[in-house]
Amino acid sequence: MNVVRRCGDRALLLEVDDVHGIARALRAAPLPGALEIVPGAETVLITHTSEADVPGLARALAALVPLPADGSAEVVVAVAVTYDGADLAEVASLSGLSVAEVVSLHQRSDYVVAFCGFAPGFAYLRGLDPALVVPRLVTPRTRVPAGSVAIADTWSAVYPRESPGGWQLLGRTESVLWDLSRPAPALLSPGTRVRFVEAAR
Questions:
Q1: Three-class SS of residue 82?
Q2: Do residues 112 and 149 lie in contact, with contact meaning Cβ atoms separated by under 8 Å?
Q3: Distance of CA 57 to CAs 43, 53, 65, Å?
Q4: Per-residue pLDDT averaged across 56-82, rounded?
Q5: Phi/psi at 95 (nearest 5 deg)?
Q6: Which of 44, 53, 97, 140 ranks highest by number of CB atoms within 10 Å?
């Protein structure tokens, strides 16, 4: 059974084992009064209307069963990367690998967007090879260019816009992660599968 907690006066927070399965179930059969579904790393936030039957909604959420993914419908986004990042050699040193091995392992992994945060379009990608788990920088950079492909702890990500940041930079991509002119501004949304590939030279 899912753990349901109140989160302010307009939301409920679910602690679940299968975040994306629960989110799929909620989207497939919306519950009365539920407004927005926000997946996190290990939780799903559900906002609700002021008129919602909150106790009834909480009971329904507690008993909700994850919906498995339909593999044929899964979206896979290929992100082309030029591996020339400022921290590529340092990541190789920290992990005891060659630069070529770091690049190969980063490309070999299958990633899925666990959740989004930090900045519009910034997707936290689960699936990083354990050999590439490295810490964040001791001193974050004040400027990380848009399109920077990075890793930190167990995550990989692409910086959607220029911003401060403390992740280890492996390379860069021309892919636009956030564009308000698109129907869906974020290129990567929770549940999207991602593959990193070598950019054409």
A1: strand
A2: no
A3: 16, 6, 14
A4: 83
A5: -95, -5
A6: 44
How far is Cα 158 from Cα 63, in angstroms, rounded to an integer? 36
**What is the average pLDDT across 141-161?**
97
Tell me which amino acid residue 120 is. P
Q: Is the pTM of this model over 0.85?
A: no
pLDDT in tens, 89-117: 999 999 999 999 999 999 999 999 999 98
Alpha helices in the chain (DSSP H): 19-28, 54-62, 88-95, 99-108
Q: Compute CA distances 26 → 18, 56, 102, 123, 160, whole Å.
A: 12, 15, 38, 21, 28
**Structural contact between residues 161 and 69, judged by C-beta atoms closer than 8 angstroms:** no
Q: How far is CA 89 from CA 37, 94, 97, 169, in A?
A: 40, 9, 9, 10
